[in-house]
Amino acid sequence: MPESREMRRLTARWSSGTGWPKRLEWIEINGLRGWQNERFELRYPIMAVVGENGCGKSTVLQSIASVYKSKAPKQHPKRKRQPKKAAFPSDFFPQTLWDQIKENATIRYSVRQGGKPPMEDTLRKPGKKWRGYKKRPERQVVFVDLSRIQPFASRVGCARLAKPQLVEKQSVDFDKKSLVRFNQIMGREYKVGRMSYTSADEYRPVPVLGHGTNSYSGFHTGAGETILAELLQLEIPQYSIVLIDEVESSLHPRLQRRLIRDLAELARVLELQIVLSTHSPIVLSELPSDARAHIMMSGDSRKIVYGVSPEFAMTKMDDIAQRECDLYVEDERAERMLVEIITAHASNPDSALRCLPIQYGAASVGQHLGIMAYQNRFPRPSFVFLDGDQEPSPGCLNLPGEDPPERVVFEALRAKNWLNVSARIKRQFSEVADACIQAMSLPEHHEWITYAANKLVISTDALWHTMCSEWATQCITRDEVQGIVQPIEDALTAVLTTFKVPPVSLVEIRKAESETQKGKTSDASTEPLLPF
Hints:
The chain is of the alpha/beta class. It has 17 helices and 18 strands. The chain is 36% helix and 20% strand. A hairpin with a 5-residue loop joins strand 4 and strand 5.
């Protein structure tokens, strides 16, 4: 989806190369929770860390929090606050009965302070204690673990704040800007917003919110409302680094989008760096590709991949693939031919799983889709394939050969004595050869695979799958593979975001559009068209 206005403004400011005088460039973690000198780079003011549970997202945030000397921000004149101590690695990575921190554990980092060149240093644990605290740069760190913010009534110690005989000692109203932000994210007008302190505990505030004629305390508001109210009341000084664990907690998709846009505006105005962990495709889709970092586990090692799509990230965390690229084909025969080409020749074994084949029916529909692809009108990478017997058309690729898929595959396999088809489908070679040759004598090629499958007592899909697999691995030429697989892999690796075709003239496009309209009329009685 298109980037929001807030994200575009943040990108423009960041790309100018000005601002952000305090900047963490990277951290490198070793000896903590299985990390082995992997480096996490902060390539954008907001970085989303995504990955399966246990991959190390929280370790990244906690290591970042350990890098800086963090002073308590200036206190609101009415707000109560318990003293806050500085954060150290030992706070986040304690030695326990079950957890032994390696004595060679390190957190290396590179920071910029003002206009000075980048400074690299290391927090290290050569023995029982961590070293390197004194050299840490100063910067305000705001760490929020939304995943551990429980509904207000469930929190330890909050039950005693609910007693009706208590007295409200004081309250701190949301400032005008915070209330406006809260209303924008919630999409509802709240006229009351304050943090209330009771006589039971002068340091523990209770959020009180009101819209319409009613007001509610945190004991009766939704978890999402409470989380947002507390998040927006955080004091975030300029040039801070903000760390948010599980940013989507308790928020429905619309609120997730609005919160990320609000954070983008905050990051631009206050020149913040924000690092957040997430499992949400909604959060990822709101951020540019530079802002996404996926931690991928492989055995005991991990790799950080930048610029992943939301669909890629979800596929890696789910048993069901989330498709990243659409492949438009005429019918199920063309679909299987194309999938087998990608499966046999793509450098990444996951490429076929990341693509969604879509059957469009009549060739005229494919020509129309090709024009849409040429004009970059699809929301994600999309490729339109015509059968080999179709004339080239703007925005379209042709499948190999100069005939329909059935003719191409049958004829190529017959020329190579049917290769290993008989062994793969567990039939006698003579049976396979006789059935396929008899099928090829039929005048209508669409009937070939059904006729041969019936003779061999096997499903048409199973036979066609096997034949396409044999053909794709041993009959197709390198040039044919390159022309099909390379554009798709480029799109999946974000080298290209849309299919680029050789320049064509406006006359050619108009001609193709005219032929498409004629095709729609002639095909209307036999093929359903897509609703464009």
